[in-house]
Amino acid sequence: MLKSSESRILVTGGAGFIGSALVWELNRRGFENVIISDKLCSDEKWRNLVPLKFHDYIDGTDLEQQARSNPDSLGKFDVIFHLGACSATTEKNAEYLMRNNYEFTKVLAEWSVAKGTRFVYASSAATYGDGSLGMDDELEDLHRLRPLNMYGYSKHLFDLHAKRTGMDRRIVGMKYFNVYGPNEDHKADMRSVVHKAYGQILNTGKVQLFKSDRPDYKDGEQMRDFLYVKDAIKMTLHLATEPLASGLYNLGSGEAHTWVQLVTGIFAALGKEPVIDFVPMPEHLKAKYQYYTCADIARLRKSGYAEPLFTLNDAVKDYVQGYLVGDKRLGDEAL
């Protein structure tokens, strides 16, 4: 648990989107004894680290090797936030996803449990598939779920492992819904629509959204549960510090909004009238596209989380005006 400012914390994926936001919030709460692990390649996510305060950095490959061969050499942690993973829903290399998202998570989780370390990991709303079976984080028979892509399945597989072994009673898994906000610009095509639309508006004055291929949804009225990253990390830290919290939790806003509502908020934040073009959905996405997601966050609320959430328009305004305009990262606010 996070007992004091001296608590030793490991954040995997700590240079990434949610990971760096988590470290930012930890810093705001006085925690700096943080070890960040990630894989810094040729993208720009290293920039997320610049405003942050942390004790040390370890390459993700080196962490995996040590965790597999000699985990005690890593020392004792009070909490491990395992947010590092391949998060591309379009990734087709199943072997890579199994090793990176499933097998490594098993290694870290089993070591954490053996050492009495609090283990908090990122699952995903992608495990719910098309949502036809609901999006219930209290579902007992996880085998009923049918993820639509290999990313979702790699996350689902560890959820199943934790349930089967009884480990789920000692760890916390977070089913993040559509998280967006500062520090995501390195994610290429996996960036949120807010980030993509902002660039489109600056370059063309308009936004492109996918047409609907279903008669029950009009163009642009496909719906998502959009969760601002500042809310996501507060929820994550609540679960990490709530001693009775265990198992899976939906982390979302609890409301579904259309893509049109989302991009209308972006235009409003920029003081512009909405201009939207609807374009055909690519063939490779059609069979794997979620038309509706909405998190039931009753279990999160029952755990004691009582914080108010950003409204969609307030969150979009904060993101656009506070960070996208000026190309700022979390931690740059005072500059």
Automatic annotation (TrEMBL):
Keywords: Carbohydrate metabolism, Isomerase, NADP. Gene3D superfamilies: NAD(P)-binding Rossmann-like Domain, UDP-galactose 4-epimerase, domain 1. It catalyses: ADP-D-glycero-beta-D-manno-heptose = ADP-L-glycero-beta-D-manno-heptose. Binds 1 NADP(+) per subunit. Its cofactor is NADP(+). GO terms for molecular function: ADP-glyceromanno-heptose 6-epimerase activity; NADP binding. Pathway: Nucleotide-sugar biosynthesis; ADP-L-glycero-beta-D-manno-heptose biosynthesis; ADP-L-glycero-beta-D-manno-heptose from D-glycero-beta-D-manno-heptose 7-phosphate: step 4/4. CDD domains: ADP_GME_SDR_e (cd05248). Residues 9-252 form the NAD-dependent epimerase/dehydratase domain. Its EC number is 5.1.3.20. InterPro entries: Epimerase_deHydtase, Heptose_epim, NAD(P)-bd_dom_sf. GO terms for biological process: ADP-L-glycero-beta-D-manno-heptose biosynthetic process; carbohydrate metabolic process. It comes from the Bacteria. Homopentamer. HAMAP family: Heptose_epimerase. Contains a large N-terminal NADP-binding domain, and a smaller C-terminal substrate-binding domain. NCBIfam families: heptose_epim. Catalyzes the interconversion between ADP-D-glycero-beta-D-manno-heptose and ADP-L-glycero-beta-D-manno-heptose via an epimerization at carbon 6 of the heptose. This is ADP-L-glycero-D-manno-heptose-6-epimerase. The lineage of its organism: Bacteria, Pseudomonadati, Verrucomicrobiota, Verrucomicrobiia, Verrucomicrobiales. The gene is rfaD.
